[in-house]
Design goal:
about 200 residues, alpha+beta, Peptide Deformylase, five-stranded antiparallel beta sheet, two-stranded parallel ribbon, 4 helices, 7 strands, globular
Length: about 200
Amino acid sequence: MILPIVAYGDPVLKKKAKEIAKDYPKLEELLENMFETMYAAHGVGLAAPQIGIPIRLFLVDTEPFSEDDELSDNEADQLKGFKKVFINATILEETGEEWAFTEGCLSIPDIREDVFRNETIKINYFDENFVEHTEIYSGLAARVIQHEYDHIEGILFTDKLSSLKKRLIKGKLANISKGKISADYRMRFPLAKKGR
């Protein structure tokens, strides 16, 4: 089932999400719905807060990035078939050079800005079967994970922008929260007038 994606301005996007237990109700169904929702919106990642559920759960599928001609064969191979579920994740280390990449967010349609992030991360998490992993990722895979991880920490990519950039996009962000935007996927707007 395709779920509406919560738009910028909803308080759920600014909350630090809660851990879940192995017996979380209907987890398998939730994961199926989240993947379906992410694919319908042409995203490469989706966090539970983005569908209005403040739990430490996000998923990624970087396959679309693997077709980028500017990537080396090695980078493209790393992104091909990289589809994962992260439950109760904790980033243990962020290392390497900070580098800029233009990011967007399904909760903030039509805004794309350069965000600086570390090259490499070490992350501890549980997969969909509640098997624990500690792994290291670099490059675009690390960036997608960092972006989604920020969601479960109540951080949006716009929070990482300079104060000048934030001022420049303030009006656009206000319009998104009021539903004055058209996205080609279902959204839920916190400040939209009822009956629109």
